[in-house]
Amino acid sequence: MTRSRLIQFLVLCIAVPFLCPAIGIDNLGIDNLVNASDLIAIVDVLEVSDIGPAPPLSFRGRDLSAETYDAELAVKNIIKGSTTGRVRVKYVLPESFIGYQGLRRGMRLVFLRKEGANYTTTDPYYPDLPAIATAPESYVRIEPGEYARSVVREMLAVIASDSATLAQKSEILRVAYALPSNAEVVTAFKSGVATAKDPELEQRLQGELIRLGDISELPKIVHTLASHLATENQRVWLLYVVGNDLKNPLAIPALEPLLSSNDNSNREAAAQALWHIADSSALPVLARMLNDTDDQVRFYAVRACADIANEYGWGGPGEEEFHEHEQKYLTHWQDWIKSHVGSFLQGAVNLQPTG
Questions:
Q1: pTM
Q2: What is the largest CA-CA distance in the chain?
């Protein structure tokens, strides 16, 4: 496994921890969950009781021992469906863990479907999400086309809230991949950064902003990484998003502290970012990276040059090809930069808006 693949795997385990012990669980799809639910509501889960054994639960060809649970909910606000102020929900969970979740006490956004005369959870993997308390009986009619958007807004309200707990925000962040990439999400995550009281949470949110294409927190992220202030978990995450999700050429100057770092992983992430940005303004920096002491930095620098030049016959090599013929690629791109960097940079200047 290459270093880049290893980092990606580690990030998945950190950013989406529930996936690692439960390989095979489908990712959350908000539209699918909304469409399959008869009732979506913000509720206060008052009580959850184990009411006894259930018939064996069939799961991937196996029969698992299971228990039946009963939950009493006080409905605060309805997004989809209709019901009275109190709802009872029955669902079944296996005694052995397979990724299924039960309803949790407190203020929750629940997804339920009708099963005969009763309600049960729509998706055993995603029965509910944390929610912010709303005024009792503050029902507002939501049009069918707005159901999924309203669910997203409730999720974002938790992220942006200065009263939501770290556990609540972390629960939303585990499924942040399901959120759309738009200005509303960016705004909520910025509010989350501003109200974060925990370094782990702040750094996770800063990384999410990079993933969403917003570079406003990049200088802070770079300082955190260059100064070795990142938490153990979030360092891997921040290096990943810097290396894989930066696409904006305006980010290039902010990367300099990482490119000058004595830490190989910092330079690797920054060089990988330059590859993905693939902008000619980075050529002087890439010339330096081609002489770096770290082979992964040199590899990313070659790939970046190849993408910028788009030169026939010298497309970016794979890692195996690069390591077998490294000097050939390094010499070619060092010579190419010397002969092209002036015209490329002049062209970039000429393209700048005037006035």
A1: 0.84
A2: 77
